[in-house]
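Q: Okay, next protein. This is Methyltransferase from Streptomyces tubercidicus. I've checked the sequence twice, so it should be correct. Can you predict the 3D structure?
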Amino acid sequence: MLTVDFSRFPLAPGDRVLDLGCGAGRHAFECYRRGAQVVALDQNGEEIREVAKWFAAMEEAGEAPAGASATAMEGDALNLPFPDDSFDVVIISEVMEHIPDDKGVLAEMVRVLRPGGRIAVTVPRYGPEKVCWALSDAYHEVEGGHIRIYRGDELLGKMREAGLEPYGTHHAHGLHSPYWWLKCAFGVDNDKALPVQAYHKLLVWDIMKKPLATRLAERALNPVIGKSFVVYATKPHLPEPAAAEPAVAEASAGEANESAAGAAEPAAAAPAKARKSAQGAKRTASKAPAKSGAKPTSKASAKPASKPSAGAAK
C-alpha cells in the first residue's frame, strides 16, 4: 500500500533514494523495483532487520533490475550519517507527526538532498486525524505516538521555510479513515471487534485484488476523507554568480590597449623628433658664413643653467 503516487513523483533508474523512517519498507521496496539505489533508514532496529531480509529476498527473486541497489540501516533522522547533496530523492512517509523537532528533520533532509532533487512528505490529514484523537486517547497518547496534527498550510509553510519549493499535493487512503475510526471507537488494541474485523478484511481484499469497485470508491473518498496528506517539493538550485558579458569585456580590453598604445607613441616619437632637430641645426650651421673675430664659446656658457632634477634624470 503506497502513499506516494509515483505518477506524480517520477523516479528514474539509478536515482539515489533515501526512505527516511522507512518502517516496514513499503516505499523502499517500490523504489528498489524501479531500479533506484535505495537507502532505507529507521531508528527501529527490528524493522530494519526485516527490511534487509526483504531486500535480499527481492534480489534473489530477480525483482530488482540490474544496477539497482538496496541498503537497510539504523539511524537518527536528526543526525543523518550522509554528506551534503547525497541523494536525488528523499521520501518521509507518516513520520513527522511523531518527531518533536520536525523543523530539524526538514533541515537534515534538505541538507542531504542535492539541488534540483525531489522530496515527498506524507502526514495524517487534519480532519480524519482529529476524529481519531477525539475518539481515543490511546490512539496518540503512547510512547512514540502522534504528537501533533498538521494542517495542510502549516506543513507547506514549514517546508518553504526549510528552503523547499512545493509543486503538488493530494490526499490518499480514503478507504482507511473509517477503519481507524472503528479502531479508535472499539479500542485501538481490540482487533476482535466484529466491525473492525470485517472492515479489515475489506482492506486486505482491496490491497491484494485491487478491484475496480474499491478503486473507484477510494478515488471518490480521497478528497473528502483521505487519511493522508501528501506534498511533493523540490530543492532549488543555488543562484550562479553573474559573469561579465563578453561584449563588455572585449570593449574594456580594447580601450585598455588603445590607452597603452597612446602612451607609448610619444615616447617612441621623441627620439625621432630629436634626431630631426639635430640634423636641421647642422645644416643651418654649415650654410651660415663665419663671422670674423668671433670668440669661441666659453666653458661657463657651455654648462647647463642648472642641474637636472631627480625626476628628469629618471
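A: Here is a summary of the prediction. The first helix runs from residue 26 to 33. The first strand starts at residue 16 and ends at 20.
Q: Noted. On to the next one.
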